[in-house]
Predict the structure.
Amino acid sequence: MNFPDLHRHLGGATHPRILWGYITKHARDSEESLRIRRRFPTYEEFAYEFNRPFHDLADYLTVHHLVEGLQAEDVPYFTHRAVRGAAVFESIDYLELRFNPYKRTPASLPDRDRRALMAEVAGQVIRAARTEFPIQTTFILCMDRGFSVELNRAIIALADALPEVAAVDLAGPYQPGGPTPGEWRELYTEAKARGLKTTAHMAESDPGDIHPHLFPYLDRIGHGIQIALHQPQLLDELAARAICLEVCPTTYLRTNTLQSLSELAVVFARCRGAGVPISIATDNPALHGEAGRIVGQYEGLVRDEVIHFNEILQYAAVGYQYAFRPTHAP
Ligand SMILES: [Zn+2]
């Protein structure tokens, strides 16, 4: 069978072997690859950085910084390999790939030049995602918690200008600065006014990261498991608004959010009871080992008795149904 995947970051979509192959074969003398080679003399050391235990979500996200600089050197190279791998090795036939266009521009350039390059880089990602394999790819542009209102607004405008981009997301490391809650509401209001779909990383690892003031603006929520675990009274509102949770099981193990996938049983049960749809997704499979592939997510949930084998088709159907560009009948 085939699977949809509604939540995958470009930065976490390329296996370390692909990144290392690029470093050793194609970018011997680039500043970024030299910097990485100095830090990780061998492939084993480089791959360990992806596979090592992480302390928490913040530690986990540091790998994205490592990857983004390298991907900025040759965005088409990494995008093409990520998409064709998803089709061939994971049986994904519908992929929503998300990325921050600003972070795919060279960090060495002045801010003005990086902003001017965002549209070109986003176009490169979109074109490189076309493969001969049977997979449809839709794109989500990530706004960032640490970016100014103005830069995040530029990302919304870019999303609107590119027909292949269906939605915007709120992502990036938690940090001081960045838009206020009121400014996020304004940004999402603008995105909706432009006809874009919306999602936001929320309630992933921290029970304090629950923001009901954004619910009226969201079509989906990235993760949201802490809502079901700690504020289940909010699930009725999510159901009434038909907000779908993008649940990425292996992420919670890798970020030390959960000790076992069996802890998701209460999340799935409460969402089922309240009528909140859940779509099973991968997030950053390159950081999750073999279990990180989409089939691994389903397998882990079945093995730990969070879902029953007979429900696999139903959960896959939810993904197609809540896709930002639905291709299958629900
Ligand atoms: Zn994510």
Q: What stands out?
A: The chain has one domain: 3-321. The domain at 3-321 is CATH 3.20.20.140 (TIM Barrel).
